[in-house]
Design brief:
CATH architecture of the largest domain: Up-down Bundle
Radius of gyration: 21 Å
Number of domains: 2
Strand content: 5-15%
Helix content: 40-55%
Order of helices and strands: EEEEEEHEEHHHHHHHEEHEEH
CATH superfamily of the largest domain: CRISPR-associated endonuclease Cas1, C-terminal domain
Number of strands: 12
Shape: globular
Largest sheet: 4 strands, mixed
CATH topology of the largest domain: Four Helix Bundle (Hemerythrin (Met), subunit A)
Strand order of the largest sheet: 1-5-7-8
Number of helices: 10
Length: 324
């Protein structure tokens, strides 16, 4: 389990060989045996005794900035578990279990895409989204055809299925939005419309949180599974972000439905459209509130940020279990 400390003024101390966590509302104690890492994302106090307890039990302490980008790690120079996990991460990539994990991610993404389109259909009374929802549900079953094979043998097939689903998803979503925010296709680096410009920025913040969760789980973010290794690129983040993208899509869709996204949030040059300082001032607090919001996912009800961290932890556990 990962302990995420994301509320100001928390105090973490050591009492009777366990972590004691004191907040403004309540106190609780956690055994070090239950923790795999401690992630600090807010201004808190942690005692020397608690730090030494973490080191004794090989629990890394990670510090992140306000959008979830890892800034520092505190651990013993004699840690062995992290190195072992990362060696197993490399081995895991060459097993059918890695393919199964990728398929599970894309199944979760497809379900979330359906939820986002269903939200739009309900709010807009847009019946034309029904066929798209049915097709996503049907075509997402194609991922199952390669379960049990190695990623190297089915990478193109998985990417092809995901690409086909993405195409119909974005076409339908773009045409069902209020007229002011409609677009014809997904555009990146740079965006060609306001919706995609906002979405690109939100995804950028989401990447930082996902990468932070990977560090917290003890995994190497540059050792991707589906996405091929790229020099100094956190390719595992490219994999693990997928189930959470539609959550951010829904966040932006809701803001568009409420007409909160203004034209003066964006600037345009000869290359495309970008979020400006007015847009960032709106979307950064919105995103941080989104991370702190509660959601039910994989039979757990907790914050969005915790779900992201828990999914990384589940991958680490899956790697450990498959390599035993």
């Amino acid at each position: 389990m990962q302990l995420v400390l994301d509320t100001k003024n928390i105090a973490v101390t050591k009492k009777n060989g366990i972590f004691h966590i004191e907040t403004e509302k309540n106190n609780k104690s956690i055994s070090p045996a239950k923790l795999s890492s401690i992630a600090i994302t807010a201004n808190i106090t942690i005692s020397t005794g608690a730090i030494m307890l973490a080191i004794q039990h090989e629990i890394p302490i990670l510090l992140f900035d306000r959008i979830g980008k890892a800034k520092a790690r505190l651990w013993s120079p004699y840690f062995e578990s992290i190195a072992t996990l990362r060696r197993n991460q490399v081995r895991f990539a060459d097993t059918p279990e890695a393919t199964a994990w990728i398929i599970d991610l894309f199944q979760l993404k497809s379900e979330a895409q359906v939820q986002t389109l269903s939200l739009l259909r309900k709010k807009r009374s847009f019946t034309g989204l029904g066929p798209t929802i049915d097709k996503i549900r049907l075509d997402s079953k194609n991922f199952e055809r390669v379960r049990g094979t190695l990623i190297e043998e089915c990478r193109n097939q998985i990417m092809g299925t995901e690409g086909s689903l993405a195409k119909i998803y974005w076409q339908s979503l773009g045409s069902a939005l209020p007229r002011l925010y409609q677009f014809k296709k997904r555009s990146r680096k740079p965006a060609q419309d306001n919706f995609n410009a906002a979405l690109n920025y939100l995804y950028g913040m989401l990447y930082s949180v996902v990468e932070g969760s990977i560090f917290a789980a003890g995994l190497d973010p540059q050792l991707g599974l589906l996405h091929a290794d790229e020099y100094r690129k956190p390719t595992l983040s490219f994999d693990l972000i997928e189930p959470f993208r539609p959550w951010v899509d829904a966040l932006l869709v809701q803001q568009c439905l409420e007409k909160n996204v203004a034209n003066n949030f964006f600037s345009k040059n000869q290359f495309g459209i970008f979020l400006n300082k007015h847009g960032k001032a709106f979307f950064i607090p919105l995103f941080n509130d989104f991370l702190r919001s509660d959601r039910n996912f994989l039979h757990q009800n907790t914050t969005v940020k915790n779900h992201i961290y828990f999914l990384s932890a589940r991958l680490a556990q899956r790697i450990r279990s498959s390599m035993q």
